[in-house]
Specification:
One of its GO terms (molecular function) is methyltransferase activity. This is Ribosomal RNA small subunit methyltransferase I. InterPro entries: 4pyrrol_Mease (IPR000878), 4pyrrol_Methylase_sf (IPR035996), 4pyrrole_Mease_sub1 (IPR014777), 4pyrrole_Mease_sub2 (IPR014776), rRNA_ssu_MeTfrase_I (IPR008189). The chain has about 260 residues and is an alpha/beta fold. The chain folds into 2 domains: about 130 residues, Cobalt-precorrin-4 Transmethylase, domain 1 (3-Layer(aba) Sandwich), CATH 3.40.1010; about 110 residues, Methyltransferase, Cobalt-precorrin-4 Transmethylase, Domain 2, CATH 3.30.950.10. Helices cover about 35% and strands about 20% of the residues. The protein is built from 10 helices and 10 strands. The strands form 2 sheets. A 5-stranded parallel β-sheet has the order 3-2-4-1-5, with helices on both faces. The protein has a 5-stranded mixed β-sheet with strand order 6-7-10-8-9. Strand 8 and strand 9 form a beta hairpin. The chain is globular, with a radius of gyration of 20 Å. It starts with 12 loop residues before the first strand and ends with a strand.
């Protein structure tokens, strides 16, 4: 990519968090989970890189109901990350090539702030977007993370598990035998080192994952499940695995974070 247009000042890359109610039956008022400064910065932004354009427009519409948008919704410049970045990541894992996102930041080199947005929570944390952040650093574009909800940290803080040493391990295998093996491996690591293991699942698989955890974990291993975080019907429970064997799982449409440890 060529350098800046003569006479322009580079824009910034704004990491704009989104509410955690994506896909949920009810929505939380934005002002209850996101500070005014974050919403105002988003309202001033007209160039976006996002996970999904439809959900990005829906979020901007909600912001516009609180703070006037700098340009009408139909005039916002919204670019989606490639589908392959969602499926295979962008760091060269799983046989995929590292994704070069520098072209997506052309507006920043022309002087416009660019907002990075995922469907829920903080972009580039358990969500796509790190390739855009990496490209910003390579181009000398300032990266500005804005304040907002991050489900992993909210769940960890509320779990009662070790918040000084923890790891996020993404999704567990769908195959039952592979999943059980992975659970046992994570449990052994957690019990040996004290490191809390955090993971997530597609909401409609919540019940199957919880059942596998309750059956596979040692009876006294502690398991925390936080679902619907920041919503009115949020649930955060932390207890021994044996106590989960007869507990209700998170709803089929409710995002959840699972954490195990001691």
């Amino acid at each position: 990519m060529s350098g800046d247009t003569p006479g322009t000042t580079r824009g910034r890359l704004l990491l704009v968090p989104a509410p955690l109610d994506f896909g949920c039956e009810t929505q939380t008022p934005l002002q209850d989970t996101l500070p005014a400064g974050t919403l105002q910065a988003a309202a001033r932004t007209t160039h976006w890189v996002c996970e999904n354009a439809k959900s990005a427009r829906a979020y901007l519409k909600r912001i516009g109901e609180l703070h006037p948008l700098a340009s009408p919704l139909q005039e916002q410049h919204i670019t989606e990350l490639p589908r392959a970045v969602h499926k295979k990541g962008d760091h060269g894992a799983q046989g995929s090539a590292r994704f070069d996102a520098r072209n997506l930041l052309a507006p920043a080199l022309a002087g416009h702030d660019v907002g990075l947005l995922s469907e829920a929570g903080m972009p580039a944390v358990a969500d796509p977007g790190s390739s855009v952040v990496r490209a910003a650093h390579e181009l000398g574009v300032a990266v500005v993370p804005l304040v907002g909800p991050v489900s992993l940290l909210l769940a960890l803080a509320a779990s009662g598990l070790n918040g000084q040493n923890f790891a996020f391990v993404g999704y567990l295998p769908q195959d039952a035998a592979e999943r059980a093996q992975r659970i046992a491996s994570l449990e052994a690591l957690a019990l040996r080192t004290g490191q809390t293991q955090l993971f997530i699942e597609t909401p409609y698989r919540n019940a199957a994952l919880l059942q596998a955890l309750a059956q596979t974990l040692q009876p006294t291993t502690r398991l925390a499940v936080a679902s619907g975080l920041t919503l009115a019907d949020a649930s955060i429970r932390s207890m021994e695995a044996r106590q989960w064997r007869h507990a209700e799982p998170p709803g089929r449409h409710t995002p959840a974070v699972f954490a195990l440890g001691r």
